[in-house]
Amino acid sequence: MLELAVLALLSESPMHGYELRKRLNAVLGTFHRFSYGSLYPCLRRLQNEGFVTADDSSAAARLGGRARVVYTLTGEGKERLAELLGEGGPSSWEDEMFGVRFAFFSKTDAAVRLRILEGRRGRLEERREKVRSALTRTRERVDSYTLELQRHGLESVEREVRWLTELIETERAQAEFPGTGSPGTGSPGTGSPGTGSPGTGSPGEPRPGPPSASA
C-alpha cells in the first residue's frame, strides 16, 4: 500500500522525506496517517531494490542550511509503479487498499479502474446483506442504541454502494462513448471521481472521498 503511494507521488516529481510525508497525508489522510516510522523504512527498501535513488548533494536539497535527502524515481521504479497500478484483484477491493487505489485512479488504466470499482461494489453488497441479516436476527434482542448503530452501519454501506454504482456507470459510458465526459474530468452531473483523464496522470478537479462503509 505505502509502496504504491510513494512511487506514484515520486512519479510526479522528486521529493525529500518531509515533503513526501506531507503529500502522503494530504492525498491519503482521509484513509491513513503515515508516520516517519513507516515511511523511511519503505524508502530504504525501495532504494535497495533500485526503484528510487537518494541524493543529498544538490543545492535544491538544501533548505534552511540543512541538507535534505531528495528521493527520485528510477526507470525500474516506473516499471514497478506500472505493475502495481495494473493490479485490480481482490486486495484492491478491501477497506485498507481501496482508498489508496482510488486516490491514484488518474494514473490507472480505465479497464483496471472499472474492475476495482466493480469488485469493491461486490464486496460491499456482500457486507450489506450480512448487516441486514444481523439486523433481522438481533432486532428483538438488542437495545435501541445498538440497533441505531447497526442501522447507521447499513446506511453507510448502502451510501457507498450507490456512489460506486454512479462511478461504474460513468466509467462504462466513457468507454462506450469516448469524449462524453471522462470520470477524470469532474464533469458536472456524472458522479465522476475527478481524478484526471484516463492514463494521463492529470489531476482533474477534486472530488470528495468515498463514503465510509465501516459497519
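Second entry:
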Amino acid sequence: MRLFIAINFPSGALAYLQDQQRRLEEVALEGRFVSPDKLHLTLAFLGEVSMADSGHLSSIIKEVEGDPFEIKLKGLGSFRRGRSALWWVGIDNSPPLLDYRERLCNRLLEEGYDFDQRPFRPHITIARQVVVDDNTPPLTSSKGYKTGVTRISLMESDYHTYREVYGKEL
C-alpha cells in the first residue's frame, strides 16, 4: 500500500483551490491539473507500507493529540523542473499546523517509520508538468482563503485514486 498522512479540505477550500487552478490553466500551454478529489496537504509521505502497518499507523495518528485549527491558503508558486514546473498553493505561517506535524513526525520516528524528512514546506500541489510561455506575466497572489482543519487522514494512493484508510477528528 502506498500511504501518506494528509489534511483533506472542505468544499469552500476546494473551490478556492480550483479557482487557482483555473487562473493557471488560462496561461498554461500544457500541464496535468490535479482533480479536486486529490487536492490535499501532505503531512508525512510514507511510501509503500504493508497492510499490517496501516493499522499501526492508524493507532499512531489516534494517539497524537491536537485541537482543530485554522490555516490560510495563500500564494501561488512553482518548483521548476527543466522546461515544466509543479505548481502549488502555499500555506501562510501556521504554528498550530507546524506543531501538530512535528508531534506526528516525532511519533512516526519513535515507532521506526521511514518517511520523507525533507524540510516541511506546506503546500497543496494543484498541477504538474505545467509549461507557461516565458513571456507570460507572473500570476499575482490572491487574497487567500481561511479554512478549518478538523480531521487528519491516513490516505492510500495508487496513482489513479485516493482513499482514506483512517480518519481522526481533532
